[in-house]
Specification:
Largest sheet: none
Radius of gyration: 20 Å
Order of helices and strands: HHHHH
Distance between the termini: 75 Å
Number of helices: 5
Strand content: under 5%
Mean pLDDT: 77
Helix content: 40-55%
Length: 108
């Protein structure tokens, strides 16, 4: 009779959020990039911006994303995006990019 031994070893998994986990948040930020009035609304009244959506599109944000957007206070879209990246630990290194002037597409 052949016997088999069972090998057991502890394995720890650390699951970090992927970019896909924040797809709706990415869509919301993209809408803010292409539409300065929506961007302003997102910065001034994020609750209304989320509720109204953008051109008929709604954003199905997670509770964590919604909560974060409601409590971040940012003066610009770049600042908002930076704070979101920090909060979710997305590893966005904002120090590595430098522009002589703010790009045209970051108008608000």
């Amino acid at each position: 009779m052949i016997t088999t031994n069972e090998l057991q070893c502890p394995v720890s998994l650390m699951v970090s959020p992927s970019l896909e986990d924040h797809h709706e948040l990415s869509r919301l930020l993209a809408a803010a990039i292409v539409n300065p009035p929506f961007c302003n609304l997102l910065l001034v009244d994020p609750k209304l911006a989320i509720e109204n959506g953008y051109q008929g599109e709604t954003f199905l944000l997670s509770d964590a994303e919604r909560y974060l957007l409601l409590f971040i206070h940012a003066d610009s879209l770049a600042e908002l995006a930076s704070q979101i990246a920090q909060a979710f630990g997305l590893g966005l290194n904002t120090q590595s990019y430098s522009f002589a002037q703010v790009p045209d597409f970051i108008g608000c």
